[in-house]
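User: For this week's homework, look closely at the record that follows, marking any run of repeated tokens, and judge whether sequence predicts the tokens.
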Amino acid sequence: MAEVTDPDGVEWSVDRRSFFAPDVVSPDGELTLLLVAIWPLWFIAHWLGVRWVIVIERAGSQVSEERVRGWGKSQRRIQEIAESVTAGTQINDL
């Protein structure tokens, strides 16, 4: 996860969407046994080529997301986005 501040002082975060994202968790906050059983398959699928979702948030609100294939490529893309935000060059594109 990358947390950076743009030239205007606004905080941004850039990270891969996790398996246990809020939309995957039941309303009362408990994970079902089914989700726990599926997690290893989800993880293996991503290592075999399913795209990682990179979530870009500005001041706590999601502004964009990108899909990138490969753990290393997704890590490099997170770093690129964070550097662009810090420099003030990515802000208008999102």
Summary: The longest strand covers residues 61-68. The chain has a mean pLDDT of 83. The longest helix spans residues 71-87. The CA atoms of residues 47 and 70 lie 7 Å apart.
